[in-house]
Structure formats: C-alpha cells, structure tokens
Amino acid sequence: MPVRTEVAIVTTPTEHAECIALAKWLDRHGICYTHVPLGGTDAAAGSRARAIGAKRGVPDYLIFDRPPLRDAMSSSRPRTAHIYVTHGVALEMKRRTGGRVSSAQEEWLRRLSHRGWVPIVAKGAGHAVEQLVALGYGGAPR
C-alpha cells in the first residue's frame, strides 16, 4: 500500500492584503483615517512623488481621531496641564512574518511621537486591531 504524504503550504498574507483587512475594519467602525500611498511602481513615479513632497518612511496609516482611552497611552506623551496631547495614531503595517521597519520609518515614528501622535508598528491587521482596541478604538460598528 503506497504511503500518502501531504504537505500543507501555509502562506503569509501580503502587506497589501493585511492593509485591505485593516481598512475594512477602520471603515466599519467609522474611524477617520487615510492610507499614505508612497510605494511607486517605477523610478519615474517615485521622482514625481518626491517632487510634490512625498517623504520616504512616512507611516502607512494616519488615524486622525484621537485615541478614546488616554490611560492606555504612555506617560511619555507630550502633556499640557496634565492632559495628554494626542493628535491621532501613526501606524506602520508589516506582514505577520518577515518585514522590518526601516531606519526612515523609525525616524518618522519617533518624530510623530514627539509631536503628539501615538506610533504603532503592527505585524498584520489582527495585531493592528489589537493595538487600536487597546487605545479605545472600535466600539460598536457603524
């Protein structure tokens, strides 16, 4: 009797697929955000984007709604009269496995943090949602 062997091929979703899942979640919860489309398809597109002000390393998502739970944020946030000054969330999306934050991305997250944004690096949409929920986002879907 022949031995049957099966190999399960497990693939990690692409960053694009993870971004689609996150965008659907953000939309479902009525969160004000944008995705920053900086990935050009060729050198000419990159050159045109830089000419109009595109910057390398800007986070994938900017969430403009302030985090509902101030208590979930670090005490390192800028303070005014003991109230955290927070403008929103700067979120860098990576694949669940692989992918690393570049030095330009780290610098942007640091700069935005110093300007009152909550920086997040997420390994997949599920990880992003977990972190956003910890900040109080994602109440009842709209």
Element-by-element helix/strand order = HEHEEEEHEH
Find the structural class using helix and strand composition.
alpha+beta
CATH architectural arrangement? 3-Layer(aba) Sandwich
* Residues in helices, as a percent range: 25-40%
Domain module count: 1
Low-confidence stretches: none
Largest sheet, order of strands side by side?
A: 1-2-5-6
Broad shape: globular
Largest sheet features = 4 strands, mixed
Distance from first to last alpha carbon: 57 Å
Could you name the CATH class?
A: Alpha Beta
- Alpha plus pi helix count: 4
Average of pLDDT = 85
Number-wise, the strands total 6
Strand proportion, as a percent range, falls in 15-25%
Q: What's the Cα radius of gyration?
A: 18 Å
At CATH level 3, the topology is Trna Endonuclease, Chain: A, domain 1
What does this structure look like?
The longest helix is centred in the N-terminal third of the chain and has 14 residues, at 15-28. The chain is built from 4 helices and 6 strands, in the order H-E-H-E-E-E-E-H-E-H. The strands form 2 sheets. Strands 1-2-5-6 form a 4-stranded mixed beta sheet, with helices on both faces. The chain has a two-stranded antiparallel sheet with strand order 3-4. The model has no long low-confidence stretch (mean pLDDT 85). The chain is globular and about 70 Å long. The protein has 142 residues and is of the alpha+beta class. It starts with 14 loop residues before the first helix and ends in an 8-residue tail after the last helix. It has a single domain, classed as 3-Layer(aba) Sandwich (Trna Endonuclease, Chain: A, domain 1).
